[in-house]
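Both lines are quoted verbatim for reference:

——
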Amino acid sequence: MKHSMKRVFAATGLVAAAALVLSGCAGGAQPTTGEAAGGGKSIVVDASFDLKTADPGRQYETTGSIVAKALYETLLTFNGEDVTKPVDGLASYEMNEDNTVLTLTMKPGAKFSDGSDVTVDDAVFSLTRVQGILGNPSFLLEGVTVEKTGDDTLTLTSETPNPALPFILPNPALSVLNQEVVEANGGSADESDGAEAFLNGESAGSGPYMLESFDAAAQVVFKANPEYAGDKPAYDRVVLRNVEGPTQKLNVEKGESQVALDLNPDQVAELASADVKVVSNPSRYMIFLLLNQNPEISEITSNPDFLQAVKLGLDYDKIVSLAGDGSVRPGGPIPSLFVGAIDAKQGNQRDVDAAQAALAKSGYAGEKVTLNFPNDITVQGLSLQNVAEAVQAQLSEVGIEVALAPAPVATELDAYRNGTETIGLWYWGPDFPDASNYTVFSPGELVGLRSGWAADANAKVTELSNAAKAATGDDRAPAYEAWQDELNASGPFVPLLQPAQNVVTSPSIESITTNPVWTVDLALIK
């Protein structure tokens, strides 16, 4: 057989195309592709686990979302990889004009794995349980009142306008559970809830799969749900295993697994001669620089001309190339996948002459400027050390001397959160796929304060941020675009890149669909 690695790269823009269609021969030895217990096909998926529980109301980790997406359904969802528009899930929806009341109407036909109907009562119980047990995802519904308002309707009423609410509801943490079963096994909608142990052994959902076994440290095994009302998944049994990246690479090469979710760019490159397929799409993570605007921390980085010199001195395309195929440069802090993103051409561009002119105007005299970053973590497999070294070299070309100061994340995180870094290199991952996640980069907001950017530091950026938060409907995208344009012009942040999310599959896989909220939908693997 001819050995080759075929790639499909996502288009840049508001939607990253993540469905990869592949073809090839079937194969794989047990316990991989083959007959599942009781007949049907099985598959093995390797991932580096970030997993604590199979209880959707308590999970808010990457692997936890994969698990919950397979076992449960949500009131609203996204169509494949497209997170720019929520679509009907278990319910249809309508938002009132001022974005304070979201009305959801349950759709008929959905059944839990025990054969009982999914009802509006199950939906209300599930959402209020998330709020009441105060688990990690409870903040998603902060300030929201959930009420049953009809035989098949419920309303979510927000204390303040919340146009992001339809984008929040597809999160697998907000899955709908079988109220009767959960309550019979210690469940409740308050802190007395004791259903987690049960839900770690048996699922209570209406999703495409049911839980066969759960081990948060080793593997999760799924079996097809015969009561699932949607399209039957191609595989009757899925084994999701906890495997480190280097072993994932070996397993998918040898056919001992069919999907590897966590290979870094170097590991993907090493597969060039292997008979595998690779899909590389921009991830939801945005890596950025911050320059501290507090003169007490640094008179140099708080100088607006020095800030401009940095923005003009960086070679953004070369930095993106460090992250490998599928990585892209966002035009602003909002990733290219989301509504409100701007094109890279609208971002700052390298101009060495203009950078040197701005540097001279700033009065900079060659002092060493410290660049802080965590050196013991990666972002989609990309080391921040590599990015920091590129920044150092490129700024040196325009006359800025940067001293790298790597430190363990446990050490550096305090300096970042306390706003004491001079220049910081960090990344931001959204809580849900909506532009409102990024107004924290405004003066006086969470990340703004981490860069020493006080609430009264930039009235224009603040005005545009407030306008974006208040915008509704079709006005939201242009409002967030205008905010980012001004942030690029005068803000202390320099968006650098979105590293790629790489998924490697064996030739037996025809298609796989990624999504920035739940990484991969196991039921859509074909």
Observations:
- The first helix runs from residue 62 to 71.
- The two ends are 22 Å apart (CA to CA).
- The CA atoms of residues 279 and 344 lie 22 Å apart.
- The first strand starts at residue 5 and ends at 9.
